[in-house]
Amino acid sequence: MRNLRLDICYDGTRYRGWQRLGDRDDTIQGKLENTLSRILGEAIEISGSGRTDAGVHAKGQVASFHTQSQMPCSEILKELRRYLPEDIGIYSCQECAPRFHARLNAKEKTYLYRIWNSREPCVFERKYVAAMPENLDLAAMEDAAAKLLGEHDFSAFCGNPRMKKSTVRCVRAIEIRRVGREIQLRFTGDGFLQGMVRILTGTLVEVGRGERSPESIPSLFGGKRSEAGFLAPAQGLCLEEVRY
Fold first, then answer.
1. What whole-number distance in Å separates Cα of residue 120 and Cα of residue 212?
2. Local structure of residue 157 (DSSP, 8 states)
3. Cα(205)–Cα(28) distance, rounded to whole angstroms?
């Protein structure tokens, strides 16, 4: 049995997220599994490094799967590029260690959230940014971001109300910068809960609007979802990189 790794990018606009939903063909995982099963002539199940939400994009998603097929990786890559839709791309297909697992072995992830901070229209990038034209205090947002760093109970930043596993995560870096009319927020951590990056973004935006203070951030740790900020729109978020 071979263990193969895929490095993947996708435009999540028309998909219901990464995770397969029954027999539906409108998820990234479902589309990849159906295509691989067709190519390899056997039922394929893939494991992704994480589950991106509906509408979220990825430039650096990683998945792994087992197969009995002896088809060369170069041929699998060629066939995937032939049959997958143009909004799902495969950078590489390669053999990996028998015990490699895309999710369980992931050590660190980086997400980028893009805010279009202008009243001018953003026609050509509208699927990849969230429009928030109001004035935002970046200094206050950076102050609040610094208080989010480290290992904490991020239960207030979890979009899954039935979460039974630990909600403790370590956020290692948050970078906020203005690039032209955009404000970009880059988050790096050992892992993120469902909706966590979008809720972190919404909370920081509320600080930027003056709706909450940077000093209020520590009180959110271990709290309820209703205490943190709004869920920022999906289209502004992109999984940039997974490190092992």
1. 27
2. G
3. 29
Residue 120: phi and psi, rounded to 5, are -75, 150
Share of the chain above pLDDT 90, in %: 96
- Residue-averaged pLDDT of the chain: 97
Name the catalytic one among 11, 53, 87, 153: 53
User: Are the C-beta atoms of 192 and 111 separated by less than 8 Å?
Assistant: yes
Confidence of residue 164 (pLDDT cuts 50, 70, 90): confident
CB 133 within 8 A of CB 38: no
Query: How confident is the model over 136-163, as pLDDT tens digits?
Result: 999 999 999 999 999 999 999 999 988 8
The answer to whether the beta carbons of residues 89 and 9 sit under 8 Å apart is yes
53 is a catalytic site residue: yes
Q: What is the DSSP letter of 215?
A: G
Give residues with Cβ within 8 angstroms of 25, minimum separation 6. 31, 34
Write the Ramachandran bin of 188: left for phi over 0, alpha for psi from -120 to 50, otherwise beta.
beta
How does pLDDT run across 103-136, given as a tens digit for each residue? 999 999 999 999 999 999 999 999 999 999 999 9
Ordered DSSP codes for 55-96? T-EEEEEEEEEEE-----HHHHHHHHHHHS-TTEEEEEEEE-
Mean pLDDT, rounded, for 222-243: 98
pTM recorded for the entire structure: 0.96
Query: Residue 169 CB: number of other CB atoms within 10 A?
Result: 19
Q: Which long-range contacts (CB under 8 A, 24 or more apart) does 149-152 make?
A: 149/173, 149/174, 152/221, 152/222
Amino acid present at 228 = A
